[in-house]
Amino acid sequence: MSFSIADLFSHQFDRKFDLHEQHLNNQMVRVLRTIGYDRNYIKANGQYLYDEDNQEYLDLLSGFGVFAVGRNHPTVVSALQETLTSELPNLVQMDVSLLSGLLAERILETTPENLTKMFFCNSGTESVEAAIKFSRYVTKREKVVFCDHGYHGLTLGSLSLNGEPIFREGFGPLLPGCQSIPFNDLEALEKALSNNDVAAFIVEPVQGKGVNVPDDHYLPEVQRLCQKYGTLFVADEVQTGLGRTGKFWAIDHWEVQPDMICMAKALSGGFVPVGAVAMTEKIMDTVFNRMDRAVVHGSTFSKNNMAMAAGLATLHVIQEEKLVENSAKIGEDIISSINAMTSQYEFLKEARGKGMMIAIEFQSPKSLSLKAAWTMLETANKGLFCQMITIPLFKEHRILSQVAGHGMNVVKLLPPLNLTEKDRDWIVNSFDATIADTHKVPGSIWDLGKNLASHALKNKKKS
């Protein structure tokens, strides 16, 4: 009897929620069913998802950023099919692979000139773990500084640098010597570094949780302060890299040269997990400084042919289709169009971001009736208003989006970089209609709000 994944998918797809309830994270199933996101998707192409009724959805999450070139891009698919059928030597281990060397060369063509070496791993959190270890070894210091609300991963080392308390709660004790400071605060950074005992300052150039963009002088001063106090400057570009912000690397907006860049997500085209760290020659040669230290840090699957082929194909697509330029143009169009609505809508504070890393923030209104409705939601659960945006966007306009973080009144867009002008208009018009509905009190959208508040209050009582 032959084995077919396609047959399994076509005959069993309606079991997926039941299977997850029985064998996986049933709380995730509860979340999806509560907010009405429990769809059976049967196909994905580019920036679009299709359900069992063949309805088209615009995906503004892109798998949390991994599908920067769109889902199932034919160039990446072809590269992986060719790799699978070519009978190439793979993971010989007592050898070095050609594809990893080619991918390293290609990536380093895009980075600041001070970065000339690459280390490959399997994910973003692994790249951060490597950066922590390498920083400590090179500087002979223990401390690592990170920013409030920063997100660097969920394994123990990277979790120790996670600035969101909900992710850390109950998993301690975490890595010692890790200190949090406010983002975009140079005085706090200099104070943290001034004892000359910090191995690394690890920072997202644009913070993912909330899409917080720094002042223009911040990262250049970060570089100066790190150099002054002998601290390594590590840019976590796991989410912001590879064109996401309208530059190939987000650091390019400020023309800085970190000592390391962590990367992952979009590098694989969304197919095969891959992460990496670009670094200076000094860092690489200090960590791997003798033949008996050639294997002091690594990962069994890190340079596998499928991951390396996916990376090479993805970089080719980004360049050939001018996706960095498209990210800058379409992203700026979306941000400026939504900002143009702020005079119409009391709830709308601003749109911000760079490229296709976009936040739409909401605020307490001035009108008494609107303010009372806002307060009702905020009392039940801070940040609940944004569910009144994302749920109708999904149900009525078939746009998949997310709230930017816990307790935030911010909707985050992280779409594929190949959005078209038609997609841009779809997004802007859908936000316009949805935000307009929130200003109709009472109204059907506030019936949703009351239900959300009721659920939130029940959950508070249970906890």
Set down the secondary structure blueprint.
Layout: H1 5-12, H2 16-23, H3 26-35, E1 41-45, E2 48-51, E3 56-59, H4 62-65, H5 74-85, H6 98-108, E4 117-121, H7 124-139, E5 143-147, H8 156-159, H9 165-168, E6 178-181, H10 186-193, E7 198-203, H11 218-228, E8 232-236, E9 260-263, E10 275-279, H12 281-287, H13 305-320, H14 323-339, E11 348-354, E12 357-362, H15 368-380, H16 387-397, E13 399-400, E14 402-403, E15 410-413, H17 421-438, H18 444-462
Helix pairs in contact: 2-3, 5-13, 6-13, 7-12, 10-11, 14-17, 15-18, 16-17
Write a structural description.
The chain is an alpha/beta fold and 463 residues long. The protein folds into 2 domains: 39-69 and 323-462, Alpha-Beta Complex (Aspartate Aminotransferase, domain 1), CATH 3.90.1150.10; 74-320, Type I PLP-dependent aspartate aminotransferase-like (Major domain) (Aspartate Aminotransferase, domain 2), CATH 3.40.640.10. It has 18 helices and 15 strands. It has helices spanning 5-12, 16-23, 26-35, 62-65, 74-85, 98-108, 124-139, 156-159, 165-168, 186-193, 218-228, 281-287, 305-320, 323-339, 368-380, 387-397, 421-438, 444-462, and strands at 41-45, 48-51, 56-59, 117-121, 143-147, 178-181, 198-203, 232-236, 260-263, 275-279, 348-354, 357-362, 399-400, 402-403, 410-413. The protein has a 7-stranded mixed sheet, with helices on both faces. The protein has a 4-stranded mixed sheet with strand order 1-2-3-13. It has a 4-stranded antiparallel sheet with strand order 11-12-15-14, with helices on one face. A hairpin with a 2-residue loop joins strand 11 (348-354) and strand 12 (357-362). Helix 5 (74-85) packs antiparallel against helix 13 (305-320), helix 15 (368-380) runs parallel beside helix 18 and helix 16 (387-397) packs across helix 17 (421-438). It is globular, with a radius of gyration of 23 Å. It starts with a helix and ends with a helix.
